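Listing 4. Sequential folding, example run.
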Amino acid sequence: MHFIGVGGAGMSAVAWLLASAGVPVTGSDAAKGPYLAALRDAGLDVRVGHDPALVAGAAAVVVTSAVRESNPELVAARRLGIPVWHRSEALVRAVAGKRLIAVAGAHGKTTTSAMTAHALRECGIDATFAIGAPVLGVPGAVGGAYAGASDVAVIEADESDGSFLAYRPQIAIITNVEADHLDHYGTVEAVEEAFRQFAASAALVIACGDDTPAGLVAADAAGRGVPVVTYGTGEADVTVDATSVGRGAQRFAMAVSQPGAHNRLNAAGAWAAAVAVGADPLAAAAAMGSFPGTGRRYELRGEAGGVRVVDDYAHHPTEIAALLAAAREREPGRLVVLFQPHLYSRTRLLAPAFARALDEPGAHVIVSGIYGAREDPEPGVGPRTITDLMGATRAASVEAIEDLRSGAERAAELAEPGDTILTVGAGSVTDIASRILDRLRTRARDRA
């Protein structure tokens, strides 16, 4: 099977699972990256650059919605009559025959998936997983993928293009439901309908009761005869607080390694799923304290000159608000936030919500140029689309700096010992953290 865009987080995971199952896999991507390098190091034939000759002889070609019809390899596959599969179809094959836990939601999928897999592993259940970020501390994992020996698999079910409807999970975890990916769905009502269909396909739904739309999806599933377990801080089947998790009168101590109330909810959902497939509830709760995290989810990239640099994938207003709340909980000093918006359509549609989420008291906020990913630029949409709405902000300063490198230089300039710089977004901003650290080290040497 040949993967176009194999260097993506999700695509690389599926490619590795199929290769681990003995399927010959090749792949290509437009540029180098850590996932491509990981696959190459693991022995797969993956290359930089798209060449029509690479698809010759493939039984199927695997793509995502981000691969354009004009891609020369996809054009060749169509011409040769080679079946073209979406990534979700390939993942269905990769986990065939396993009890599937599929985690969906506007936010928290990656962390909840990884927490679930970690809890299972700590309880002696060696689960396969396919997750859209590197999962830390797992020997044998390649990027976000691991081929386990048990009959359980945990996957991150991506709702962005509706492809999560390809799965028929034993357990569907729904972390939340919110207006996002409107470039695909068009309306929030269409988003909600997709989640209702996803929930109806499961044998058991585990849903966050603190999120009203997720609760409504769960209620719809229950009305269709699907068993439902809710989790949350209030009235729910599984309840969680700062120190424990449990169901009914049974309580188990749980100290979550990751900061923020949202991560305690993620841990509660993961705990409920692990217990549902046979994990010991006490051990599963204890496992959340040793969870090492995933790449780009409150990931400490380093410290220099007394300044911490933390990288996070947050790219939706709700995620940014949760990230800043977690940073307030963990970091003692000021925050310097370098945010790179992801997608022109998302920036245009959610600009007021971004402005509110970034309105962090006392913080220095820098918004860089937009990472377009699969989209072409939209005239008039840029960093000022957000910052112009932050006129009466509580932040210490707000700046729109189109060039990401210049934004990184400014972030390093603003930070003082004791502060924390957050590099935030789903695009290339993650690569700038090392540049910031270099700048901070240089400044510290100059001041010595």
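-- end of first protein; second protein begins --
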Amino acid sequence: MKKLLLAFLVLVIMQPVNAQKIYQRDSSGCAFNAKQLIAPATLMTAGLSIHFAAHDSWDASVQRFFAQNGKGNEVVPFDDWLQYAPVVMDLGLGLLGAKAENPFLDRLIEGTLAYASLGIINGSAKYLFHTLRPNGNDYRSFPSGHTAFVFTGAELVRLEYGWGWGLAAYGMAGTVAYMRLYRNWHWLSDVIMAAGVGILCADIGRWLLDPTRNLLGLNKVRWNLSVAPTIDPLSGTLCTQFALNF
């Protein structure tokens, strides 16, 4: 009896996940909008200004503060894996019933484009600026790769699910940026610049989504993937159902 009741409760709770969503894509939401450049341009300008004009004051002061008051080398490097959490949110929340702007295939394409852009832009910047890390490990400090990666994911979550989930993702992004300073891997200008680069690359992924769909001939493809956890009422075994609808 308890197993039957538990199975019934799971089915009721998971009913929104089992329901098939129909996405009505509004291509205007993927179009370039100059207002979207304000936040990344502001952050990138601030990062570049500190890097070139205030490195000995702002960057050095923040680094000294963390060196004197922190124990960065003693903490668990959780920022190394926390940077991937927004990526999982972007792709996974929609599968679990959260209302997304685009179906799974489009989110996958959008994210791929965003991170490809990030690899090109951030990788090129690290090579061109050739900045020594505050811990002296190498000359790939500016901009921060971890910070850029996590901010790309955070902005993708905001674009797809709104500020409700977006705030949680940005909280993770801010934590990673803080930890890069706390653990003495980056200067202040590194993380500020990287945050702007990350947001910009997420926007690039959104802007290139429809052109990529056109190129791949996916405009007429309408499908959705759903995931529904269930419990076998007889054995009590937890199962997962996957449904791919064309």
